[in-house]
Amino acid sequence: MGRHAIHGALGVAGLLGLLLLWWLGVHVFGEADGLSARFSPQATLGSLIELLGQGEVYEHIWVSLKRILIGLLLALLIGVPLGLLVGSYRHLEAATTPAFQFLRMISPLSWMPVVVMLMGVGDQPIYFLLAFAALWPILLNTAAGVRQLDPRWLQLSRSLSATRWETLCKVIIPGVLGHVLTGVRLAIGILWIVLVPCEMLGVSAGLGYFILDTRDRLAYSELMAMVLLIGVLGFMLDALARGLHRRWVHA
Amino acid sequence: MTEVLLDARGISLGYPREHGWQSVLENFDLQLAPGEVITILGPSGVGKSSLLRVLAGLQQARAGSVSLLGEPLQGPHPRLAVAFQDPSLLPWLSLESNVAFGLDFARQPKLAASERRARIDHAIEAVGLQHAREQYPAQLSGGMAQRTALARCLARQPQVLLLDEPFGALDEVTRADMQQLLLQLIARHNTAAILITHDIDEALLLSDRVLLLGNHPARTLGQWLIDLPQPREQRVEELGALRIDILKTLRRASRTPEPDSQPMPLPSETAHVPGRLHPHSS
Hints:
- The complex is a heterodimer of chains A (251) and B (282).
- Chain A has 251 residues and is an all-alpha fold.
- Helices cover 82% and strands 0% of the residues of chain A.
- Chain A has 10 helices and no strands.
- In chain B, the strands form 2 sheets. In chain B, strands 6-7-8-3-9-10-11 form a 7-stranded mixed beta sheet, sandwiched between helices. Chain B has a 4-stranded antiparallel beta sheet with strand order 2-1-4-5, with helices on one face.
């Protein structure tokens, strides 16, 4: 058996262990007939299957994924060019690093009231908050990628009489793409975490909204099913980002 | 008088210091004829790599001029190809795309698609890597990577090939293979080449002419014409005599005091080893 297969089997075993802990937790600490029974794995899985059988949940998933995608695209549109600039000029880097580190450490959610006041309720403040959250890992990783560009690649491109534009498109951008994808992977992790609370304010669709909706309907096993679904979707998004990164660096 | 492809005159190299300049190399001259292979030989620290960068138009010399085909060299030129110490392959491109890299740059001569295709195919075939054209640099051995870098130079069909210790990082066997390959390619395409090395044997095996650099600041200590047919491995005696002569020259130079005040007695000394060696006529 290859190392990959062993690692895969261990990973599955870990997930099964998590399921067991969940079951034990509800079983040992909850009262048998009380509220907690509705948080048990059995009830949750039943609800999940039921939810997936209906159409409604797919709409919420689609809306949430669309928000992630738009937030990520906005962050890429701003973060990559800015990262290329910051990585290329030492002085610009010195001038911007403290400001970026300062902004990065403010939880994007703490801007929420301000953004809602300025932009109103709806999708716009969510896009803004998501883009703002995803910007920093993309920007900082792109800048790091520029600084770590192999000088031999630049020398090669010069020896081939490349124009500045050719050097940018054929050497610098592909050369930092691995770093950008690392930034994207980190950004997706942050986006997915920030998305759910963002959707708990002033919107009528999305996974965060649906969680509050199940609470209000006292449908607790559905609530747990949504928590599980959020975990599964996040896991898949991360796997996708990792796969993209691996494909690019040919490791 | 023979035609001169690359003509370097009075090249001096140095780097700025607090007060003035630290001179590294002074008054270097070189005339490269079509099809000729010249080795620039010298110990570490004499500015060989910088000199090659100047000859390639990648760096400005402190003094002196370089011209290619009678025109002053202003910067990197499409007729010049450089192979660096390191293969410098781009890890995100397949071997084939690495070989093709730069062919469609705006300042390179325009190629029809079919011509471009043919050049890439020939170059990959010439270095014997047809089986690996879809592979990526991370999957290539050191020798294969260096062959790929050589194929990238060949695809451009340069008139002058500049090589900066391209085989330095390879093991003995691979290095010997690469040396033979280089000779074949140079002969087939009638390319002229300048090879930088600190390996006397490599210089003796490969070149028509050896220029020896040495001292501080460095200068040309001597040059030797080697008029022996390839392959040269069997010519141990003649090459051995030359080897000793080159080493002697290097030692004699290192014993003389700093040459700032008094010029070296043997600039451009020409070898007269009996038999196959022709005195240089410049």
